[in-house]
Amino acid sequence: MKRAIHIDILSIFFGIGTWVVVNGLWVELPLLVNALPEGWNLPSYLTIIVQLANIAPITYTILHTFYRDTFTETRVIYFVITVGLVANALLVFYWDSTSYLFGTARSTALLALVFCLAMVDTSSRVLYLPFMARFQGIYLTSFFIGEGFSGLVPSVFALIQGVGGNPECRLVNVTTGNLTEEKIEPYTYPPRFSIEVFFVFLFLMVLLSLIAFHLLTYDSIVGKALAVSPNKIKIPTEVLLDASDPQNSYHSISPSNSPERTVRSGQRVRNESPVPIIISNSGVSNEKRKSYQNEPLFQHVAKPVFIYLLTIQTIVCALANGVFPSVQSYSCVPYGNVAYHLSATLSTMANPIVCLLLFILPKPTKMSITSIFVASLAVAMYLMTTAVQSPTPLLVGETSGEVLLVVGWILLVGTFTYVKVSIATVLRDEGKRGLFLVGAFTQAGSAIGAITSFFVVNYTNIFTSYEACHNVNDMTTDDPTIDLIF
To answer: How far, CA to CA in Å, does 439 sit from each of 66, 122, 387, 475?
Structure first.
């Protein structure tokens, strides 16, 4: 089957628009936490907002079920991407706007716009893949590559941006009325380009995604790339597992050992299905379809193993999508802005790398999943210890501590990713209902983790913020992460 390169390129750019903004916000947190009133609590706010944004795909699925002719994928995709563009454009100008709520300053503009952007990105899970079903299956790979780039591209751009290094302690004159006194304050050099420029970059990525989608709607452009009989459309079955994960795009990449659903149709595939698993109306009798739908669970995986893996999935998703994103600032900032920056960006890159490795690794088993799960818990314990011990965690101020921290966060994201994708791969043998349960427990775990961590971070004293230069009022410092400048 001859590929149309321009369709591959358009599919990649279309896929980039899935999670590029949410992933971009996450890797920009090392700069945002120092500029906004929420400070170190900002990640916990973003985590809970992404969870709340799942109301969007739920609402679409309901509306599409009852008003199929009105709420088609093409119309809704145009709408959600336009909402994303407008919200992103407003973010460029108003990301640092604040207002007073409940007696304290809040980043109301940023939080409201992030909610809109998160609704757009979570909706991509039930919109973009069904749209891609109208094309031949070979172009799904290009779309998945684009989804991977939705995390890689902003991470690379953030690495280029930098964070300006670690803070310096500077002696400044502060005048209050007629009284002038000397005071030591932290100073951080600006990054290579501003937060506004970074948001402009995200806007351009979403704009390119919209342009790519628009071109893909023209039959004169896509031509023979459309799926028509007797061609087959192969769609991985684990594509709807977790719409709430900021790095969810990588979870749709199917390992080579994974079975795929093959669909035949005598007509062009419609793009109005609310889910990307398409079952043809031809060649399958009603009796066989009913038999397939009523097929019992636990035919390929024993019930105790099934429950065991779902339990692990719930725990991992609670930690990966709720707890650790909320406390990352407490774990990283005491080691310096650079360590936080590298932890956020490189750990994001670890996600797609692990998924690519799953293409060549043997099919996961209960033993391999358990082993990696235990390893991930060991890493998680270390990183949680650094967060709880903030502002003076283990090896703070030591180069070895910074290296260990960055490597720890890379390993944490990598092992969590392996466990989540591997469980989906194993339990998918139980069919559509097995995958539904994986998705349900994934969402439940993510919500539990996000809600719990939000209240713990914001309404308890378990985690303490680090303040640069707090111990140098006597003109000396024992903290190697800061420099004292006179």
So the answer is: 23, 14, 29, 55
Could you report the per-residue pLDDT of 452-472, keeping only the tens digit for each?
A: 999 999 999 899 887 777 655
The pLDDT of residue 288: 43
Please count the residues of the chain.
486
Write down the pLDDT at residue 297. 57
CA-based angle 394:398:401, to the nearest 5?
A: 50
Dihedral pair phi/psi, residue 192, rounded to 5°: -65, -30
State the Rg of the chain over Cα: 24
How far CA 60 is from CA of 17, 125, 402, in Å, comes to 18, 11, 44
HSE toward the beta carbon, residue 194, CA cutoff 13 A: 8
Instruction: Give the up-direction half-sphere exposure of residue 337: CA atoms within 13 A in the CB hemisphere.
Output: 26
C-alpha closest to that of 29 among 333, 263, 456, 475: 333
In one letter, which amino acid is 424? A
Dmax of the chain from CA atoms? 89
CB-based burial, 388-412: b 16+ in 10 Å, e otherwise: ebbbebeebbeeebbebbbebbbbb
What contacts 130, CB < 8 A, 6 or more positions away? 73, 271, 272, 273, 274, 275, 276, 278
Which residue ranges in the chain fall short of pLDDT 70?
A: 1, 228-299, 432, 470-486
The whole-angstrom separation of Cα 384 and Cα 199 is 30
* DSSP letter, residue 121: H
pLDDT digits (tens, 9 = 90+) for 100-140: 887 888 999 999 999 999 998 888 878 887 888 888 878 87
- Residues 365 and 424: beta-carbon distance below 8 Å: no
With CA atoms as reference, report the closest residue to 422 among 301, 334, 330. 301
Distance CA 387, CA 408 (A): 13
Amino acid identity at 474: D
Alpha helices in 333-365 (DSSP H): 337-357
For residue 280, how many other CB atoms are within 10 A of its CB? 15
Cβ 57 vs Cβ 126: under 8 Å: yes
| C-alpha distances in Å from residue 210, one per residue of 25, 83, 99, 394 | 20, 11, 32, 46
Name the nearest CA neighbour of 265 among 217, 298, 290, 229: 229
| 3-state helix, strand and coil shares in percent for the chain, rounded to the nearest 5 | 60, 5, 30
**Residue 236 and residue 254 in contact, taking contact as beta carbons nearer than 8 Å:** yes
CA–CA gap between residue 249 and residue 238 (Å, rounded): 11
Judge whether 92 and 193 are in contact, CB under 8 Å. Answer: no
Pairing relationship of beta strands 104-106 and 99-101 according to DSSP bridges: antiparallel
